[in-house]
Amino acid sequence: xxxxxxxxxxxxxxxxxxxxxxxxxxxxxxxxxxxxxxxxxxxxxxxxxxxxxxxxxxxxxxxxxxxxxxxxxxxxxxxxxxxxxxxxxxxxxxxxxxxxxxxxxxxxxxxxxxxxxxxxxxxxxxxxxxxxxxxxxxxxxxxxxxxxxxxxxxxxxxxxxxxxxxxxxxxxxxxxxxxxxxxxxxxxxxxxxxxxxxxxxxxxxxxxxxxxxxxxxxxxxxxxxxxxxxxxxxxxxxxxxxxxxxxxxxxxxxxxxxxxxxxxxxxxxxxxxxxxxxxxxxxxxxxxxxxxxxxxxxxxxxxxxxxxxxxxxxxxxxxxxxxxxxxxxxxxxxxxxxxxxxxxxxxxxxxxxxxxxxxxxxxxxxxxxxxxxxxxxxxxxx
Length: 382
Ligand SMILES: Cc1ncc(COP(=O)(O)O)c(C=O)c1O
Description:
Elements: H1 7-11, H2 16-23, E1 29-30, H3 42-53, H4 66-76, E2 88-91, H5 93-105, E3 111-116, H6 122-128, E4 132-137, H7 148-154, E5 159-165, H8 177-190, E6 193-197, E7 220-225, E8 238-241, H9 244-258, H10 263-274, H11 280-299, E9 304-305, E10 314-315, E11 318-319, H12 325-334, E12 337-338, E13 340-341, E14 353-356, H13 361-377
Parallel strand pairs: 1-12, 3-4, 3-5, 5-6, 6-7
Antiparallel strand pairs: 2-8, 7-8, 9-11, 10-14, 13-14
Helix pairs in contact: 3-10, 5-6, 5-9, 11-13
The structure holds pyridoxal-5'-phosphate (PLP).
Pyridoxal-5'-phosphate binds near residues 95, 119, 165, 233 and 238.
């Protein structure tokens, strides 16, 4: 038979998280998914129905409808006071913003630095563009901060960009201001683009979010999404921000990729953003309680150690049991608990499991009961 498939498709592997879901039974406790268990607010649902009834059903501008782009620019002035609507492109979720950035910037022969462990799509996107991903590590011992010296050592004349993610999936670490400064200095010195995935920037439990979008460096592509903050994963809407010369190139790829983002959803999101209260803080307060419960339960299990997440909604404990993270996650799935093996996020994730606390307190407690029982049956390393 003819070999139909492009090298880019053949080089990709199915995500290790997907494998867990394929094995899971219908009544499993799901702490595997990066998705809040809330429905959209009444306000959001009404705004969408209104948009559809008020004629927002046609193609719109490639970069997004102007009123939404203006509102997003206004929001981003908290990080960079000179952001204007011309710096913004609305995308079909953070995923599509990341892909358009990769397609605009990466060529065959380029090298791109990606976090390890890191969100599962960064490396495949680099590979799909024919470039080579090189991993930099985020270690538990280092509070999941990247080590600037390690990054410096990975840089070659071919290095085009560095992808950073704060708050981070899967570690839930946030980049500290000193680390951000060190990364920016490296980017300036080596003329690297920084692709900064900040889709969890409003899900912060302590302190404040520090953005890479900053007047000190123009070559930043900032990625955000409405999926996490507004619990609207299925609406597939996000946005990116960058300098105008970057936006001109990005928007060409955006046109040939999706023509324009979905019009009624953009109008609905615009209305939600303009509402006097949009319940983001309420959701963060609920998540903080869930975080405190799951972290305590994890640290009470022999052999487990979990840092307290500062943002996002993942607990990423280490374990000292004599088993790979994939096999451990398989054992848990067999007992009715879905989580993600750390190795699904790169070699640096081995020795960890990722539990999402975007699920209810009841499910978290039940899930931890399963983990406690299963963990007690697995031999420890020492
Ligand atoms: C770090 C990170 N970036 C981007 C995304 C993509 O989100 P979406 O495409 O739903 O906006 C996710 C989703 O889990 C994520 O965890």
